[in-house]
Amino acid sequence: MKLTAKGRYAVMAVADMAAQGASARSSLSDISARQNISLSFLEQLFGKLRRAGLVESTRGAAGGYQLTQEPSALTLDKIIFAVNEDIKAHGCSPEAKIACTGKTDRCLTHDLWGALENHIEQFLASVSVQDVVDGRLPVAELEAAE
After folding, report:
1. What's the mean per-residue pLDDT of the chain?
2. Which member of 16, 39, 75, 79 has the greatest number of CB atoms within 10 A?
């Protein structure tokens, strides 16, 4: 299972905005240059982030994008789901008539993959953009304790 570029780059871009200051306006060209992300790809992502209400845009010379929430209140799951990214470990979907095995039976590990999806979603919901900017990640906390 791999998080696609949409989810990764959306989180990178929003974290970049937060690092510039919560109330600062950022142009997509500046984010593109700082994070080495294609400008056209950022335009697609920010359209989705804007429609989800996570960023707002202002036109003009002093314009750009601004976060609509404080970085400490904005969790990674909101960003990833805003760009239509699904966290999927299952080989099947609940809507499909054919289950994991290609028949009507679920595979032996079906519940394992469901638990993994839930764990990932809970992790993403527990980490804020401010945590990312400050380097306060649960994994880093575990490594420091060892």
Report:
1. 85
2. 79
